[in-house]
Task: structure prediction
Amino acid sequence: MEIEKGIKYFEEAIAACIEYCNSNLTEAGHSTIDIAYDIASDSSVGGTSSYNGEKYLIEINYGVLKKINDIYAILLHKNNESFYQKISLEQTFDDYKADFYLSLLVEESLKIVIFHELAHVLNGHLKYLYQNSSEKVNLNLINEDNNELEPLFSQALEMNADAFAATHCISMLTFPKSIYMRNEQCQGLIKNKSHAYLIFYIASGILFSELGMSNPRESKPLNELYYLPLRTRYDTMIRCSTNAYFKLNPEQSSDSEFLNHEFLREMSSNTELYHSMLRVKQGGSNLNFDIKNNIEEISEEYINHADEIFRYWSNTVREPLLKHTIFDLPK
Ligand SMILES: [Zn+2]
Result:
């Protein structure tokens, strides 16, 4: 993707997600929220959001998503037929269709990042942070230096932002009219709702993989972290996305045979394998990159910790946020 074209595409995607959230607000009889946005060039995180007491700003980093675009350009090349088969549920590679899958996967990755940041705005996280911080200059959740929240509180907000992103992406992607419209552009692109889920699942897996799931990290005491470890975070996001899928599409209950958390957890290493295969192809990859790295982050201890954060959200975090949000917050 050329930079100019890419930036314009990013801006349109952000505007469309803001518009989507604002139309939900209007439909529920509320006024809309003014959210400014910008494209930044950082490539260590997907995006950031901030509030200065008057204005909200979300910034999406071109760097990470450009890399995601390049990854799919290689994964969806005809030399990697197995990835195409996995994503299309078809045996024979189709060049024309591969381009549509590339756009769709990049769009989903971008939406995960955008909706995550929008959650910090719309679910009252930034306003809460603003009220509870001593230094009131452009408060930004991702920045640990001016994050004055308790670590567990911060972990719960991040988890809520991931859940918001998963729910919105699944809602948009499995909406029958949206499936129909995509198939109008490219026949047979999305076979059915469970296929739409699969596309989200792979897009989120590659995104988290690119954010560094397999890079070696020092493990720190869970209660001191401001952000859940990446593998734990991905695991809870998948859990939230299947919950959203079945809640929004109750008629799909028979999909639970393979769209269940245990199975998807096993499968996620496959997605990472595609990513690591690609790093090897690109050469010059970090030699310490290994899908076994940080594997403790999906151990029982970490999963139990994530469960604890779910409870902490319900018991401690949700209530004080309510006065800063007009959206209903999950229990
Ligand atoms: Zn965040």
User: Anything to note?
Assistant: Residues 116, 120, 141-142, 158, 161 surround zinc ion (CB under 6 Å).
